[in-house]
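Field: COMPLEX_INPUT
Field: COMPONENT_COUNT = two
Field: RESIDUE_TOTAL = 813
Field: MODE = joint
Values follow.
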Amino acid sequence: MHTFFLILSYVIIAYMLFSSLSYILLFGLAFRKVYRESELDPRETTEDIAGNERTFPVSILVPAYNEEVGVVSTVRSLLALEYPEKEIIVIDDGSKDQTSARMIEEFQMTEVSFAVRAYLETAEIKTIYQSSIFPYIRLIKKANGGKADALNAGINLASYPYFCAIDGDSVLENDALLKTMKPIIESDGQIIVTGGSVRIANGSTISRSKVETINLPSHPVVLMQIIEYFRAFLIGRLALSRMNILLIVSGAFGVFHKERVIRAGGYNRKTVGEDMELVVRLHRLLREEKSKQRIEYIPDPVCWTEAPESLEVLRSQRIRWQRGLWETLWTHKKIIFNPAYGSIGLLSMPYFLLVELLGAVFELGGYFMIFGGFFFSLIDPKTAGTLFLVTIFYGSFISALAVLLEEMTLHKYPKISHLVRLYFWALTETFWYRPFMVIWRIQGIFAAFRKKHNWGNMKRKGIST
Amino acid sequence: MTLPFFLLLTAILLLFQLVLLLYLVIRKHKRKRLEEEIESQYAHLTEPFASYMMDPSDARFLYAVKSISHQQVVLERLLNGYVAFTRGGSASPLVQQLSEEFLTETYTRVLNQRNWARRVNTLHYIEDFRMRSLAPILRERMKQAGKLDVETQQLIRTLASLNEDVVIDELNRFSNAPVRLFVDILHRLDKTNAEEHVKTALEGENETIKHAAFIYIAYSGAITFLPQVEKELASPQVETRIQALKTIFRLKYLSEPDLLAPFFDSPFWTERMFAARITGVMQFSRYKKSLSTLLGDSVWWVRYSAAEAYTHFSDGDVILAHLAENHPDRYGRDMAAQWQTFRPGGAR
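Field: COMPLEX_OUTPUT
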């Protein structure tokens, strides 16, 4: 038995070292590009498309379910976006609160009859409203069908060739859409999807739907989520995007070529990970068609969103994410390790399976061995000590590195104290935050077998005044 | 690999990160102080600059700018602000004069540096300030450019903004040159120069530049090219015909409405859609009946455009009300009903 645990410990150590090295490799790939571009004058690089009538118009889709607190400020922030031509479509997915009423009242909306195209099948559309003060703001009131269904309804109504999907509780920076559309415009259609960075707004001051002051929240759980987002967006996504094997464009902020999405069948209504599932399906189609089109992640355009402050809500969010990841990998299991799908099949899908999905299982095993080694002589203390150090390396050190990478490149947080606080909190990750994540991620895998769909139960305070 | 090895590794990594953290803290502190200095000098020069731009005989600004330590950055910010917020700011001879006097030397140096971002920023500034003094250096760089990357594309735009028409030939060197870049060039060249290139493009066989010429005509309202555009309506290439229709839609001008007639029965839905749109914006009453036929088209966008076209006519709402009740096609009735209440367009 002792030998079994010893071998298991070595497997976990090898796994964690391999995963950590893969993160460092991804970090190395991401660093050069983001560092090189970080000194570009942002206004100069977007002014050409900002004032250009030929810039593709964009339909902005805001799926909303019980978003009465944040939906109006989100739409107001979208009104303020610098972009030559846009329309805003809010989709109320059968909310039980006053989401539609708030929209109708705030933007003086009236009912219109609309000959909606049924490219994608959705739950029943009840009414379509149009604002009488801003005619390009529309509201779809529909029967509840989930976020994917709401987005599909928005796609059916959208008039423009590209759509931007954003969450009902998010605020985009003024030039975020311009920066996200820039690669699409400059690639002459070779880039079909772009995703922007999502950042946590808790602690910052957002007034009149504009980020006025960037600050850190005091709540440690939210601080750790900020660090986690750095790790996910700056290390993982950027490098995967460089290799054109990016599998996730956040549901909170992404721009898509509408016709491509329609041809792919729209968002999958049977998964809670509809954002990832769509991107994987698009990749799959691109490979099957031998197309050279790309899916890219842009590190700078920022969408600010509200992060959960309570462990209970965070838990339900992470279970949902993990379940979405499992469902996507299961739906597209044919691709995994399949050379016909090139680097998607051989690199990114196995990476998401082994590192993102099963990482939690290995980590739980690691914590169990460390505890068992130190307190119950399950393994010898030296091996337990080694495992302990590797776990710190895998968790805290990589996260701390992400904080430093953010400062080296984008440095969005203005104060020195922000940097120092984030760095030292990152070092604590392995000791308290990560164990929670590990347990919830494993629960997420189990939850995938219980087919109950919902929008999540985020308790909003609202991020804008 | 034993415990001491991992202990040592952890210690080294922690030390490395702490050193990096310390470096970043110092860098952040220095950058903050630098930014404060720049802000202070900028604030100090704002009033003399504004005064100089209104009355160049007030030379206080010239003396002040020579004495500051962050001359380049402060001047860039002042000139950029002026160019961005003043009508015709880019064409101001004072902007050109100031930038050429104070920035030519610095920019010549930057253009030869290894820092890619600074080179690209500088190309943008040269364009914004119309720094003709740097045209020879830029022309030389253009000749050496081997691939059409972000920097070369901006170099081309900058040269075009300095009215260097050599860029069209230079761009033609790249087989992958996109239409968008040709259009960017045409819009930056001065009108006479651009129209000369458009004329050549319309007479030539290069479809990419011909396409760019159509876009230029459409967006600049160059109505003098209408005969050539109308001639392309008979082109055997469907893409060329669509470009010509698009241009006419934008120009809102057609010398002979009969030219539109064949497109109502086109097998290509894009041509039918533009026929409907042109009928609307130019209020060709003779095609009202054809619009009714298109309202029952199998393609949603054609039905949408046909119904929208009615809204341009003074009796459009009456016709739409009638069609919403009586059109033989169910989808046509729905679309007519939509346009009775729907208001089109996006935020501009």
